[in-house]
Design goal:
The structure is a homodimer.
Chain A lengths: L2 H13 L5 H10 L1 H9 L10 H7 L3 H10 L2 E4 L29 E4 L4 H6 L1 E5 L6 H16 L3 E4 L5 H11 L4 E5 L12 H10 L1 E4 L9 H14 L2 E4 L7 H11 L3 E4 L7 H12 L3 E2 L3 H8 L22 H9 L8 H8 L3 H13 L3 E4 L2 E4 L13
Parallel strand pairs in A: 3-4, 3-7, 4-5, 5-6, 7-8, 8-9
Antiparallel strand pairs in A: 1-2, 2-6, 10-11
Helix pairs in contact in A: 1-3, 1-5, 2-3, 7-8, 7-13, 8-9, 10-11, 14-15, 14-16, 15-16
């Protein structure tokens, strides 16, 4: 991409709202230079330069880049080695809540290379008002996938986002915070240190130019970047109006893997996730391994099916198990009585009892058969 | 069905194991009279009557029926008005864990008519070692569907089963307990009163003749009856080796609706349910309404989609919302500053601010605009 185009994108990233679908569509079609030229000449009915034109004239994109550079911030645009090409999927999606299109560029802070770290990445998002259950599970999942070298993408918010970043950091894995404000700002302010840690080992990323403040609309815009950067999105807890459901919607629109962690049906922060699982074909995940399996090439992370403990009786034949079930726990019973309880023929039961005795499952005494490992009750003690 | 056939089925119900697929298949093909005749003549290589033949000769089916009648127990067979015809689906399923086929007959205790009460019915099953979460949800769901006139079918076990029956009883709805022992027995013994209540308003049902004891195999056999009697099965909590998963499997085999209630992924009793939701296409349900919708004719129980609260700002245009987001909470800011934060043109913002003031969202003062309903901080108080 030419320097002019890069500068024009810097200017537009400050002038317009991120993810304004009219702007992203125009830039995708004509390029940022042409769009800037057009806007710069815009005049109202009386021939006076419009407000937009005036603001565009007042911008200093080259200075912006220089000041950003001094703060360790770079502006990555399509065509750069670091640009994640999968963001182009956003140009093929319809707008959602008035936002859409690929970002004009991304402001990036941190030592990692963006395209490299998102190559294998998963978004872990959810409610700010999360429960300890939710933050616990989010942290576990993030740590698990980070240990496997998968980057955890999230939004640095309170609750699930914070737990996801922390889980990845604790596992010394890469993590990316995508903000709805300039990457030089800490939002929420309480996460200043968290964002500094994220920038050290991973990246802090935003569509918004340095200095820009977060707004609700910018969060909606940011959510589409979180979803599109990642191979899949895991929603851990999300109440019915949670922004995480917006991220989930973007994951579906961009054909990413959408995953949800269930929780108690009595817990409001799990309601939105259950809706995703019911109505959006989100995949139910319960642990990091499930997530890895879903975002990895087929077969490379297949897990063994979950099995309960193997019990000694598992290897018994059906008949032997049936007879064993009919043997009393404590008070011995004759073989005929066992046969009646089991509903099996006498000779069958007698043969089975001998096999079970050889296997150590039952013991025989003068009064008949009882389970091994059980003792007669103390005749002087209380009734069992 | 002839009296002979009924008596032959009584005899076989005492002689064989319930759900023995060899027996159920033979009876389905030849009828119980022919099977009894064949077994009665069976002799071993030396010409001596086999054990089975001897036991068959010792039975007294007519006496069995009479004794049962005196205890308020009847034996319902195919062809009876009370016989639920949908049980025939079991004859079209492959065996599972060595059990299969339609019951030869059902021993029934209670005043309700079996076919009538199962016409609209749902099984609610789960772990004996349930959590208070699980029993709470099971009880809620059972009460909700029972209030709508849907019969709750379960197994009278501790935990989820008990909660399901109680929920239905509390809602004065019909409920059916399907036992793995004779309907004259209370298993578990602690549920003697519960079973008595169930029989008063609903039914206690079993394949096993009065007096028979429960065994593990009989529980497996019983589970297929629970699943096949109902239009659908809801699994509330089930550890990986829970018998409720066997019931779930039978629900799938008989093409009933299989439903699962999710829970915390950290809770072992929810693990089995999550596996069902992941691998068996069980439908995720979170409340009684979900269950009613799934087991009712299309459209008759459709619920409104879950929505969050409606907020006053919901009806604002996108631009107005964008401007509102940029208005400071406490310290007033001039319109130009709001415009810069919002990233919108000045005239747009000024017009929006006036609309927002008229709507009561913002207030204007000499120093500019701030959100309505917020007050200036007390200058003498601590910093906010």
């Amino acid at each position: 991409m030419s320097d002019d185009e890069r500068l024009a994108r810097v200017a537009l990233s400050r002038l317009g709202e991120p993810g304004d679908p009219r702007l992203t569509a125009l830039v995708a079609e004509l390029g940022a230079v042409a769009v800037c030229d057009y806007l710069r000449e815009e005049r109202d009915a009386t021939g006076v330069a419009t407000d937009v034109a005036a603001r565009l004239h007042g911008l200093d994109p080259a200075g912006d880049l220089e000041r950003a550079h001094r703060e360790g911030i770079r502006f990555v645009v399509p065509g750069d080695a670091e640009w994640p090409t999968r963001l182009a999927d956003l140009d093929r999606c319809p707008p959602l809540n008035g936002r859409g299109g690929a970002p004009l560029g991304l402001w990036v802070r941190g030592g990692a290379r963006l395209a490299e770290v998102v190559d294998r990445s998963v978004a872990v998002v959810g409610s700010r008002s999360a429960t300890t259950y939710g933050t616990g599970v989010a942290g576990e999942i993030a740590a698990h996938v980070a240990t496997a070298g998968v980057t955890v993408v999230s939004g640095a918010a309170f609750g699930i986002d914070q737990a996801a970043h922390r889980g990845a950091l604790a596992a010394r894995g890469p993590t990316i915070a995508v903000l709805a404000c300039g990457v030089d700002r800490a939002y929420p302010a309480a996460h200043r240190d968290l964002l500094a840690y994220v920038a050290e080992t991973g990246l802090v990323v935003s569509e918004l130019a340095p200095g820009c403040a977060p707004t609700k609309l910018r969060f909606l815009s940011r959510n589409r970047v979180i979803a599109a950067l990642s191979l899949g999105t895991v929603v851990v807890e999300a109440a019915i109006r949670s922004g995480a459901l917006n991220t989930a919607h973007w994951a579906s629109l961009t054909n990413r893997v959408l995953m949800g962690v269930p929780g108690p049906v009595t817990s409001a922060p799990s309601e939105g996730v259950h809706e995703l699982l019911r109505t959006r074909d989100a995949a139910l995940v319960t642990r990091g391994g499930d997530v890895l399996e879903l975002v990895s090439p087929s077969g490379s992370f297949t897990q063994l099916p979950v099995r309960g403990e193997v019990r000694p009786t598992d290897r018994l034949s059906e008949t032997d198990r049936q007879v064993l079930d009919a043997v009393p726990v404590r008070l011995p019973a004759p073989a005929g009585s066992v046969a009646r309880t089991a509903g099996l023929a006498d000779p069958t039961v007698r043969a089975a009892l001998e096999r079970l005795r050889d296997g150590g499952f039952v013991v025989a005494g003068p009064a008949g058969w009882r389970l091994a490992g059980s003792t007669l009750p103390d005749p002087g003690g209380p009734a069992p």
